[in-house]
Design goal:
The complex is a heterodimer of chains A (324) and B (69). With 324 residues, chain A is an alpha+beta fold. Chain A has two domains: 2-149, no CATH class; 185-301, SH3 type barrels. Helix content of chain A is 48%, strand content 17%. Chain A has helices spanning 2-25, 38-62, 78-93, 97-100, 110-149, 151-154, 166-179, 185-190, 243-252, 291-301, and strands at 202-209, 214-224, 230-241, 265-268, 273-276, 280-288, 306-311. Chain A is elongated. Chain A starts with a helix and ends in a 13-residue tail after the last strand. Chain B has 69 residues and is an alpha+beta fold. Chain B has a domain at 16-61. In chain B, 57% of the residues lie in helices and 14% in strands. Chain B contains four helices and two strands; from the N terminus they run αααββα. Chain B has a two-stranded antiparallel sheet with strand order 1-2. The termini of chain B are far apart. The chains are: A alpha+beta (324), B alpha+beta (69). Chain A binds chain B through residues 151, 155, 157-158, 176, 180-181, 183, 185, 188-189, 194-195, 199, 201, 204, 216-218, 228-229, 237, 239, 262-263, 265, 286-289, 291, 293-295, 297-298, 301-302, 304-311, 313-317, and chain B through 1, 3, 5-6, 8-10, 12-15, 17-18, 20-22, 25-26, 29, 36, 40, 45, 47-50, 52-62. β7 (306-311) of chain A pairs antiparallel with β2 of chain B.
Chain lengths: 324, 69
């Protein structure tokens, strides 16, 4: 019976809140994933559940709505509650619980009836407490996710001299301590998490493979395993550098002649180009401003004499290349 | 992999994507200015590949009067 009670507390008071927190946070940002031991998982869950637990307990005892709803019970005083828990603890630790909870009408006594009533009230109190506890843990997860999701907008850059509101300064104090340590580093590196949303930054990568192939493309998605390691990257608008052709042309040219490498990029006609981690030798990450910024910069550099358009990838010099 | 995400975040925010792009673009266009001008003067478009992989098409500016004709 003791094992059963321990399991109940472990599952409903520690593991379920931890899972709820992760679930709701993941609506905004992915948390750091790695294979934890049971102790590590329990430590994480306890840290996460501490505040909701304290608030739910306080609310279930003292706050007007929380102490009655849902699963209301008669006998709301502290002594009633203590008496019920004492009685139920006695039943659960008894070596002969069946005697105390006799279901045979012939054996039913007023004491047995009281035991059943106490058990019912305790179950209803537990259900009420857990309802608020889970709700508050979910809210905490949502709040954490929301705050983490605003990191790019609210992060104060070190060299910024602008005076920021107190709340933003508090956020910048708390973010490195609570939020960042729980965010996956790949999420930070391969998404626009660090940048303000209005800047519409996106991520492009140059990937050098073990066999010497060089690919360039926009990060559409990435995948990590349960240990938090990168397993692969999904790219879109991909191009491959034709190194052999470049070397051939360079070898045939005069030593003084400049051969531009930009002409040797070939587009790959795929919106879902997956590169597995095992074939990645080197990863160069670029944070790239939106197309409008590129256009306006190019027009400015060209003294506004010409029209500039960002094209989806076709050029007049290369046909799409089936990757080899 | 153990990464100091705070340092990573600071390092990322110290860089400026727009400044980097401006510098790359300036260098690229300066190196090809003559080529761009001659191509566009002959009425053709010029395609330029930006180091981040995007491609831009530079074409002669159509004057509003020409556009309405």
């Amino acid at each position: 019976m003791i094992a059963l009670i321990t399991t109940y507390f472990l599952v409903f008071y520690i593991l379920v809140p931890g899972a709820l927190f992760r679930f709701f946070t993941s609506w905004f940002v992915p948390l750091k994933l790695f294979e934890r031991t049971r102790t590590q998982e329990a430590t994480f869950a306890v840290a996460v559940a501490l505040l909701p637990f304290a608030f739910a307990l306080f609310g279930a005892w003292y706050l007007p709505v929380m102490k009655d709803r849902p699963f209301s019970v008669s006998g709301q005083s502290d002594s009633d509650r203590r008496q019920d828990y004492h009685r139920v603890a006695g039943i659960l630790t008894s070596s002969d619980a069946s005697r105390l909870l006799a279901v045979n009408p012939a054996l039913t006594s007023p004491a047995t009836q009281d035991n059943w009533h106490a058990l019912n009230r305790v179950l209803r109190r537990q259900a009420r407490f857990l309802t608020w506890y889970f709700l508050l843990t979910g809210c905490e997860g949502l709040l954490f996710g929301f705050l983490a999701g605003r990191y790019g907008d609210w992060k104060i850059i070190e060299d910024s001299t602008a005076q920021r509101p107190l709340l933003i300064r508090f956020y910048n104090w708390i973010a490195p301590r609570l939020i960042l340590p729980n965010i996956s580093e790949w999420y930070m590196l391969l998404t626009d998490f660090t940048w303000p949303r209005h800047e519409e930054i996106f991520v492009r990568v140059d990937i050098l493979q073990n066999d010497g192939n060089l690919y360039q493309g926009r990060v559409a998605d990435y995948f990590i395993d349960s240990a938090g390691k990168l397993t692969g990257i999904l790219l879109e608008h991909v191009s491959r550098f034709d190194r052999q052709a470049y070397l051939d042309v360079k070898g045939d040219s005069k030593p003084t002649e400049y051969v531009s490498s930009t002409d040797f990029w070939k587009n790959i006609p795929s919106q879902n180009f997956y590169i597995g981690q095992s074939s990645i030798s080197n990863l160069n990450v670029r944070f790239v401003p939106r197309d409008e910024t590129l256009i306006s910069l190019a027009e400015k550099i060209l003294d506004n004499k010409y029209d500039v358009v960002v094209t989806p990838g076709e050029t007049n010099s290369h046909q799409p290349d089936i990757y080899s | 992999m153990v990464v100091d995400v705070q340092k990573l975040s600071d390092a990322l925010r110290r860089s400026s994507p727009e400044k980097d792009l401006r510098r790359d673009l300036q260098r690229l266009i300066d190196a090809r200015k003559a080529e761009i001008d001659s191509t566009l003067e002959s009425g053709k478009c010029y395609w330029l590949r930006v180091p981040d992989g995007r491609q831009i098409r530079i074409s002669p500016r159509i004057q509003p009067a020409e556009a309405t004709q």
